[in-house]
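Input record (one chain):
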Amino acid sequence: MRNLFVALCGVAALSTMSVAFSIHAQQYPTKPIRFLVGNAPGGGTDTVARIFAQKMSESMGRQVIVDNRAGATGAVASMLTAKAAPDGYSILIITRSSHSISPALQSDLPYHPVRDFAAVSLLLTSPNMLLMHPSVPAASVKELVAYARARPGTLAFGSSGAGSVGHMAAELFQIVTETKLVHVPYKGASPAVNDLLSGRIQLMFIGPTLVPHVKSGKLKALAMGGPKRLGSLEDVPTFVEAGYPAVDASQWYGVVTTAGTPKPVVDRLNREIGAALQKSDVRERLIETGFDPTSSTPQQFAQIIKDDFARWQKVVKAAGIKLE
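The corresponding structure, as predicted from the sequence alone:
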């Protein structure tokens, strides 16, 4: 009888918690929501966050306030979210750079990218192109690989900095293709692009912002990261089409909140983000910028984060990358 009583008490407690969570979700939000951004105002991540903050404020009837907490490749904003109350009033925009690559490179972060967050939704993806200076005599990825294998250590690739998506994409490319390239890290993308255009470096993984230089013939685009071709460069194949499916050179953006946030609240946030992604003005603005609007369920996004973190841990270990 005692065991039965304990069991019944447990069921009652769970039922009470479920009702409390349901009421909380129905009332949520009752105050402004803080939307943390791990970058300074004006950048791509900040721009995306502000687009969604505006739409969510309109639909939820409460202000969604963007809170820029730049520093340590997004670690400052991530730590604030991880340590916040698990109530859905602190949400965070994350990227592959901030939440998969950076934690794979830094084992001493004060939070875990998977355990300390509740995934809400994927927002969008952005392809990274493999661009090449025309001085390199190659017309395809396979020709570039053959050329690089015959001349190990002679071709240089630039990046916006050690640990950036462009850097890690190139490291993965070298592992997959068994080539040896020279990494030249820059303080930002602009100086790297300038040296690529001048021929001081020969290769770079970067987003679709350089499409005009490809169309003018100043640069060659050999392959596109991501699942599909870019509409503005329909003749450029994906890495899958080029014969290198393991080269995953793309960026993604998504939203998480604090681990332990009630599921009904997470689901509400997910629905609001999904609704914003369906609005034509949001989609048009994102597509014009080179993004591919892509929503998901919380469970799907949680799996993406988990798998991606594990993938980049392997790349960091295989390439022997250490941040100075």
